[in-house]
Specification:
Elements: E1 19-21, E2 27-29, H1 30-33, E3 63-68, H2 72-84, E4 88-94, H3 102-105, H4 135-148, E5 155-157, E6 160-167, E7 172-180, E8 187-194, E9 196-199, E10 221-224, H5 236-239, E11 247-251, H6 255-264, E12 270-274, H7 287-293, H8 306-312, H9 315-330, H10 341-357, H11 363-368, H12 385-389, E13 394-397, E14 401-404, E15 408-411, E16 416-418, E17 421-424, E18 438-439, H13 446-449, E19 468-470, H14 483-503, E20 506-511, H15 513-526, H16 557-563, E21 572-576
Parallel strand pairs: 3-4, 3-9, 4-5, 6-18, 9-19, 10-17, 11-12, 11-17, 12-13
Antiparallel strand pairs: 1-2, 6-7, 7-8, 14-15, 15-16, 20-21
Helix pairs in contact: 2-14
InterPro entries: FAD-bind_Monooxygenase_sf (IPR051209), FAD/NAD-bd_sf (IPR036188)
Pfam family, one: NAD_binding_8
Protein name: Flavin-binding monooxygenase
């Protein structure tokens, strides 16, 4: 090499990573080589205070991720973290005795989103039994996904998070977990830590009793729709098989109440539905798409035939059907905007549809059809609900409840109804107040941080809580489109963050306070343009009919997916594992772990451009 005028350099005679053989026969590692003096004109000791790392650029250290919850979010997180994070230590804690989240507790209900739109994008199910799948079938789908991707060894059932505290010196989350010991009513607490904590519990995980005087003095059977009292192994249908001579009351006209009324109506002697608010019910979602595929789609919940399922066995047919359904769901976003042409048309069409379905008891329409815009409350087609209200054994009761008595319900006008069974379909705690201490940097308590309303950055994280990300938190839901697509994208966002933590040897990643404030400002200016801010009772809002919208993303479902696709790394602050000022210390010693592999030619790395047609 000296013959052509190049300076003398150590000659590399071995491809073994991290070892360099010098011309004098000695061997040093690459870090030591950086300090070797030679006749190269560069002064290698000019930055003597800095030393190269003694590791390869892709020599990733161990990283511990803890996921809270084993519903759709937790299952997706378990799959994606294992897929993309190397040297991973993963634990998923689930408070229930089985996977499924809301669908484990609510297995008696059905989905009011088309079945083929309520599944993971990468795990299609072509043999759903009905257009709106029953809860047990959704639960079985989730259990099947968890088994297929071999998640059960990582899931600890009946383990409930009761405290989370960020530890500044270690940069880790310290967790306290409670689980039963086996003896009835006895629990023990364990401690765990996490480099990154991902919460997938969602906003609809803690059900609440209604605030009605005398509720717990009722001596009949008392149920909540979110925690159905049934014996293990029994279906909800079996649990109500003895109700044919009973008088049953259902309180509520939300999504759960709208499903329970038609489900119980043919199985009980008498049913009262107590409704204090109004709500829109849509025609069946995507009904024209269904009609184009099947012979008879007139049913409010079409049952797929074996012939239908066989047709879906053709990937092209199924893909086109599912794509059309999701196109239809996403295309309704403009109906959520105040004064839009689609909103005005929806009000006319939905009113006509509801009046038609209530033809046997037209007076109900006066108490049920709202003055506020379509979708101000969560919109549902309510298969069979209006028809059930018209049956002879069902009474629709718009008069407000005064109190619950030992054997019935008393209304504010003095009317009393004797009942045997009381079902509260009254929803969940949507205040976003944590049921356990969640403490971030500088002793910041999450409940204080999120009072009077929750604030986040893109609905996935918040400042003062490093290395904590979540799905279906504040302002994460969608009024139209695929909720599961949003869950997947929120999980993928957390995975990208985790990859950066590991790749760049970061101790912490924390969103900047000003980025949180900017998102909050955007939210405050978006919702006044939508029907969600109109006066209506909705779990989307913080407690009041005109409260702040905290349940929905400020935009469409597709808008959310675009926003979360690429993290804006400039919106975060970082802390390094190594006490080195040089931000590029993670480059290591200049080597990769495998210097013999042309990995960039592997299929997963190739990005082959299409050939232009013109």
């Amino acid at each position: 090499m000296d013959d052509i005028g190049l300076p003398h350099v150590p000659s590399v005679t071995s491809a073994i990573p991290n070892r360099i053989h010098l011309a004098d026969g000695t061997s040093v590692n690459s870090t030591e080589a950086s300090q070797v003096e030679g006749d190269h004109p560069t002064d290698w000791n000019a930055h003597a205070a800095f030393k190269l790392g003694s590791f390869s650029i892709d020599e990733y250290g161990p990283l511990k991720v803890v996921v809270i919850g084993a519903g759709f979010s937790g299952i997706t997180a378990g799959i994606r973290f294992r897929q993309h994070i190397q040297n991973l230590d993963l634990t998923i804690y689930e408070k229930n005795a089985g996977v499924g989240g809301t669908w484990y507790s609510n297995s008696g209900l059905a989905c009011d989103i088309p079945s083929h739109c309520y599944q993971l994008t990468f795990e299609p199910k072509t043999d759903w039994s009905a257009f709106y799948a029953p809860g047990p079938e959704i639960l079985a789908y989730m259990q099947g996904v968890a088994e297929k991707y071999k998640l059960m060894p990582y899931i600890k059932l009946e383990h409930e998070l009761i405290q989370a505290r960020f530890d500044e010196p270690s940069g880790k989350w310290h967790l306290r977990i409670r689980h039963p010991t086996g003896a009835y009513g006895e629990y023990e607490e364990i401690e765990d830590t996490a480099d990154l904590l991902f919460c997938g519990t969602g906003s609809l995980s803690r059900w609440t009793w209604p605030d009605i005087e005398g509720l717990h003095t009722f001596k009949g059977r008392l149920f909540h729709s979110a925690q159905w009292d049934q014996q293990d192994g029994d279906s909800w249908q079996e649990s109500v098989k003895g109700w044919r001579d009973k008088t049953v009351a259902v309180i509520g006209v939300g999504s759960s109440g709208i499903q329970l009324v038609p489900a119980l109506q043919p199985r009980v002697a008498k049913l009262f539905n107590y409704v204090r608010g109004k709500t829109w019910l849509s025609p069946p979602f995507a009904s024209e798409k269904l009609a184009a595929l099947v012979k008879d789609s007139a049913s409010s919940n079409y049952i797929f035939t074996e012939e239908d399922k066989k047709a879906f066995g053709d990937p092209k047919v199924y893909r086109a059907f599912r794509h059309d359904l999701e196109d239809n769901l996403n295309s309704t976003h403009s109906a959520t905007l105040r004064g839009s042409e689609m909103q005005n048309a929806a009000r006319v069409a939905f009113k006509e549809n509801m009046i038609k379905r209530l033809a046997k008891k037209p007076w109900i329409a006066d108490h049920l059809i709202p003055d506020f815009g379509v979708a101000c409350r969560r919109l549902t087609p309510g298969p069979g609900y209006l028809e059930a209200l018209c049956e002879d054994n069902v009474d629709f009761v718009p008069t407000h409840i005064k109190r619950i008595t030992e054997d019935g319900i008393e209304l504010v006008d003095g009317t009393q109804h004797k009942i045997d069974i009381l079902v509260c379909a009254t929803g969940y705690d949507t205040t976003y107040q944590s049921p356990f201490p969640m403490v971030g940097r500088n002793g910041t308590n999450l409940n204080d941080k999120w009072s009077p309303h929750p604030i986040t950055y893109l609905s996935v994280c918040v400042d003062e809580f490093p290395n904590w990300f979540f799905s279906l938190g504040p302002n994460a839901g969608v009024g139209s489109g695929s909720l599961l697509a949003v869950i997947e994208k929120q999980v993928e966002y957390a995975v990208e963050v985790t990859k950066k933590l590991q790749r760049e040897r970061l101790k912490t990643i924390e969103v900047k306070a000003e980025a949180v404030q900017d998102y909050d400002e955007y939210i405050e200016h978006y919702f006044p343009t939508s029907v969600y801010s109109e006066r209506c009772r909705s779990w989307y809002k913080m407690g009041k009919e005109e409260g702040r919208v905290a349940g929905l993303w400020p935009g469409s479902c597709l808008h959310s997916l675009r926003a979360l696709r690429y993290p804006r790394w400039e919106d975060f602050n970082y802390g390094q594992v190594d006490k080195v000022k040089n931000r590029l210390y993670w480059l290591g010693d200049g080597s990769t772990l495998n210097e013999k592999s042309a990995w960039y030619l592997n299929d997963e790395y190739l990005d082959i451009p299409p050939i232009p047609q013109a």
